[in-house]
Amino acid sequence: MGVKPVDFKIRARRRPNRSLMLGIPGGGASRLQDKEEPAAAPTRTSKQDNKGSVVSSINKAVSVFFGGNMGTSESLVQALTRSAPTFGLDLINIQDLDTATKNKTLPAFNPLVIIIPSSEGRPPNNAKKFVAWIEQMASNGEKLPAGTKFAVFGVGNSDWTQTFHKVPRMVNDTIWRRAHS
User: Fold this and answer.
1) What does the CA dihedral 135, 109, 180, 117 come to, rounded to 10 degrees?
2) DSSP state of 127
3) Of 2, 7, 103, 163, whose CA is between 20 and 30 Å from 144?
4) Distance of CA 125 to the CA centre of its chain
């Protein structure tokens, strides 16, 4: 099939004992280990300085908002949760984008990571309210707190040339203009 119809839906289930990363280049083993340990997000890490002394440092708090219909964004969040402490990050607030709109604001005191795809140039089902909210914010001229720190990661297939990263780019541009105008 060359072109996916707009309202085409498919339901799939992961095979038992298969990892989320199976089939993704560099994704690791094809079978899960005995049991995956839940990711722990410590608030302190220990590192060695150049003299060999152990130095304790406090991890940087980060919020993660994600959207998606196919599970890719969620698996990226899970991977980030496992690796964040290694990079000195503490993921304190993880939620889907529509849930994040309940507060009608974005985190101002800690960085925000947004993971979002485009689905034929439209937001995923669990990000429609979020996208509508930031579009309304832009049309009303509302501002975000100065210095709002954020990163938008677009998820998608570059074969869809007309709509590739349309929503992530719009989200990035809108948030940037609202925080820097």
Assistant:
1) -40
2) G
3) 163
4) 15
